[in-house]
Amino acid sequence: MYLNAISGPIYTFCVWFYRLAFINLLWILFTILGLGLFGVFPATVALLATLRQLINQNDGSIFKTFWTFYKEEFIKSNGVGLCVVLLSLILISNIQFLQTMNTGLSQVFYLATIITACFFLLVVCYFLSLYVEFQAPIKTHLKNAFLLAIYNPVASLTMIFGFFAVYLLITFVSGVGLFFSMSGLGLVVLSSARLAFRKVDA
User: Fold this and answer.
1) Position 3 pLDDT exceeds 60
2) What is the phi/psi pair of residue 103, to 5°?
3) What is the reported pLDDT for 8?
4) SS3 labels along the chain
5) How much is the mean pLDDT over the chain?
6) Are 189 and 163 in contact (CB under 8 A)?
7) Dihedral class, residue 103 (left if φ above 0, else alpha if ψ from -120 to 50, else beta)
8) What's the pLDDT band for 4 if we cut at 50, 70, 90?
């Protein structure tokens, strides 16, 4: 019984270790197959959808699940991704421009833009979680993602600290980024978003 108590968690850890590594490699492969820019968003949606299936304990083929969502969401997710890229470029350009200014007012705008960029990142993460969890129009997902980012500070802070933990892991542990960078971030996003979903349900 003692051995079973130990071997059970070890087995579960090994299974998730393999799954996360495999999904991360699939994300890299299908991002490359989509020529980088056109592959990253379908691959990200497929990654999150596959992780969602595993979290829900739907033990199907990881590759088949990933490939199904990748091809089904290729065009739609690239449309969403284009909007995300354009808004991100605007925020980055504003941040870089304000860094060159030395006035007190520019520093206020710089700080405000940094906060806006962080909030924008949270909204994108919640949007992607809603996108793979629920069937609804894009506008509905966007509105709900905005509201979740505002009214769920605990889940948002959990997401931010989770991102930081993954960053530290891939920075200081050699080779981890290749196998667990995106899958680790995806797991953080889905887990944190589900905290927010449960609060809304309650």
Assistant:
1) no
2) -80, 160
3) 63
4) CHHHHHHHHHHHHHHHHHHHHHHHHHHHHHHHHCCCHHHHHHHHHHHHHHHHHHHCCCCCCHHHHHHHHHHHCHHHHHHHHHHHHHHHHHHHHHHHHHHCCCCHHHHHHHHHHHHHHHHHHHHHHHHHHHHHHCCCCHHHHHHHHHHHHHHCHHHHHHHHHHHHHHHHHHHHCCCHHHHHHHHHHHHHHHHHHHHHHHHHHC
5) 89
6) no
7) beta
8) low
Mean pLDDT of 75-81: 93
Mean pLDDT, range 104-120, rounded to an integer: 89
Short-list 28, 15, 12, 11, CA closest to 179: 28
Pick 174 or 165 by higher pLDDT: 165
Identify the residue whose tokens are 């971030």. 185
Token pair belonging to 2:
């003692």
